Amino acid sequence: MIESLTPYGAILSARFRTLLQYRAAAIAGLTTQVFWGWIRVMIFEAFYLSSASEQPINLADVITYIWLGQALFRFIPWDVEKDIQQMIRDGNVAYEMLRPVDVYWLWFSRVAAMRLAPTMLRAVPMAAMAVLFFGMTLPPSWSAFGAWCLATCGAVVLACAITTCVTITLMWTVSGLGITRLLPGIVMALSGMSIPIPLLPDALQPILLALPFAGLIDMPFRLYLGNLPPNAVWWTLAIQGAWSLAFIALGRWLWSRGSRRLVVQGG
Amino acid sequence: MPMIAVENLTKSFQIAERRAGLWGAFTGIVHRKYRTVEALKGISFTMEPGELVGYIGPNGAGKSTTIKILSGILVPSGGVCSVMGRTPWRERVEHVRNIGVVFGQRTQLWWDLPVTESFDLLRDIYRVPTADYNRSRDELIALLDLVPLLNTPVRQLSLGQRMRCDLAAALLHTPTLLFLDEPTIGLDAVSKLAVRDFIKRLNEERGVTVILTTHDMDDIEALCKRVLIIDEGAIYFDGTVGDLRAKVTNERRLTIDLKDESATLLTADAEEVARDGRRITLRFDPNRVTAAALIRQIIAEHDIEDLFVDNAPIEEIIARLYGGRRA
């Protein structure tokens, strides 16, 4: 089993090494995220101060929710895998098909590397800074923390399955300009990244929770806050798992269709 | 059993036609017109293990399409193709484990990583056991003189350096069959010679079977005993370089350096094709006049410093072959 995972693990570690070459980018990214986090915290503070009615989630929790989002920002499926996009555009995708591995999983691991490497580099310093200086709180209990950890693993798999699927559609559209414009809007709004889902209208709640996106941000974050009880993690994992399987199945189907119609440039 | 057996292989592509102009672009949204391009119109050939075959033809002839089908990247529209007993596109994973491919215009190395890390990645992707990998890698590094390049990120390599690294990358898993698609394209003379020399040794010493596509006729002359010529999706020549010459022309060239720059040289048996100062190039048909007789005749009438006899350049033969078919 470990043996059979070697190629995919190698892709992941290569990505880390590539990324570590660009320290300036990591620092710049961190600064941007701190800046945006501050702005968003200020917006929500103003909103809570001007509102007289009781909110379904308190301000302290929203602030933690925001900083958690800033720390884990990079694993949200809001863009496509750039290396694969480039390969599809210039025909280097031919070399991917020369590898003695399942190309879907090869791409899935490329996507996982692209999602995880920057997240792991930035999340820890970002969260540490937020806890120390910006009012982010720690989970109320070890069980809440454990539930959040499990749900985060589920969220990563789901995010990668969605990203891989979207990336494979580039085999038809090539430029992907349309989808890369649409995707951030949809994902940010429906995952709770822009506004925590509990603050959205009650009528929308069941729909949002049934869609794949709440499993990315909202459900894990609420487990962290204790807003959802720790045993809700099983429900969260079930939703994440079902959507992951659906996106993996769709991605594999798209890949098998796409690779058959592949026209690699050249005479 | 032949290593490669191809029978009546066809491939056609559907290409969306775009009509010119704004109105054309608009109607294109509603109704697309497709044009079918037949890249391969039923080609057949076989190759034995240990052969080094040159696969040549003008741009758009179907060379790369053939290579891509043989390497399992493209699915043909029809025909039979067996490589080492497997159908490439049906048993892709098993098939690609045993072949190496170099596309001269692309690289399979990781752009941002040092060369040696790209090699290690390929080891992991091909699951090459460490001992085998180390042996194969060290051998390739020595043969291609890669030591000074190993720790350089690929983006900083020159084209010639990159091609040497790409050749090594395609061979780390010790494939027995190697496809080279224009491996010398864009290279300077020294790099070309290095690449050629390496391909020759690989074929002779390790017995690797090689298919080579190229536009560089020197590659063909230096490396290939057998050539396949393809044009407009059909193979119309399969034989040795000698057969190819015989088929098109058996004409020879005689190049003479005269002592006197102003002298004219007239002979009924040969025709002047070029003159550059004191150097004259003549062409003659060895069936009409032997080289010895022609030289005797010229020496008797002129003062000569130097001379040599040569075959017609292969470039010209190929050009004549393409031209003759089109005419």
Describe this structure in words.
Chain A is mainly α. Chain A has one domain (2-260). Chain A has helices at residues 2-20, 23-50, 59-71, 82-90, 93-96, 103-133, 142-168, 170-173, 177-191, 205-210, 218-225, 233-260. The longest helix of chain A is centred in the middle third of the chain and has 31 residues, at 103-133. The N and C termini of chain A lie far apart (41 Å). The mean pLDDT of chain A is 88. Chain B is α/β, with parallel strands linked by helices and 327 residues long. Chain B is 36% helix and 29% strand. Chain B contains eleven helices and 13 strands. Chain B has helices at 21-30, 63-70, 92-96, 115-126, 130-144, 159-171, 189-205, 217-223, 241-248, 291-301, 314-326, and strands at residues 4-17, 33-47, 52-56, 78-83, 99-103, 177-181, 209-213, 226-231, 234-240, 252-258, 270-276, 279-284, 304-311. In chain B, helix 5 packs antiparallel against helix 6 (159-171). Chain B is globular. The A-B interface holds A 3, 6-7, 9-11, 14, 17-18, 21, 90-92, 94-95, 97-102, 106, 260, 262-264, 266-267 and B 13, 39, 59-65, 68, 71-75, 92-94, 96-97, 99, 101, 103, 106-108, 110, 112-113, 117, 120-121, 124-127, 181.
Q: Any low-confidence stretches of chain A, pLDDT <50, length ≥5?
A: none
Counted beta strands of chain B: 13
The percent of residues in helical segments of chain A reads: over 70%
Number of helices of chain A: 12
Strand content of chain A: under 5%
> What value does the average pLDDT of chain B take?
87
Mean pLDDT of chain A: 88
Shape of chain A: globular
Instruction: Measure the end-to-end span of chain A.
Output: 41 Å
What labels would you give this structure?
heterodimer
Task: Characterize this entry briefly.
Chain A has twelve helices and no strands. With 267 residues, chain A is mainly α. Chain A has one domain.
SSE topology sketch:
The complex is a heterodimer of chains A (267) and B (327).
Chain A: H1 2-20, H2 23-50, H3 59-71, H4 82-90, H5 93-96, H6 103-133, H7 142-168, H8 170-173, H9 177-191, H10 205-210, H11 218-225, H12 233-260
Chain B: E1 4-17, H1 21-30, E2 33-47, E3 52-56, H2 63-70, E4 78-83, H3 92-96, E5 99-103, H4 115-126, H5 130-144, H6 159-171, E6 177-181, H7 189-205, E7 209-213, H8 217-223, E8 226-231, E9 234-240, H9 241-248, E10 252-258, E11 270-276, E12 279-284, H10 291-301, E13 304-311, H11 314-326
Parallel strand pairs in B: 3-7, 3-8, 5-6, 6-7
Antiparallel strand pairs in B: 1-2, 1-4, 8-9, 10-12, 10-13, 11-12
Helix pairs in contact in B: 5-6, 6-7
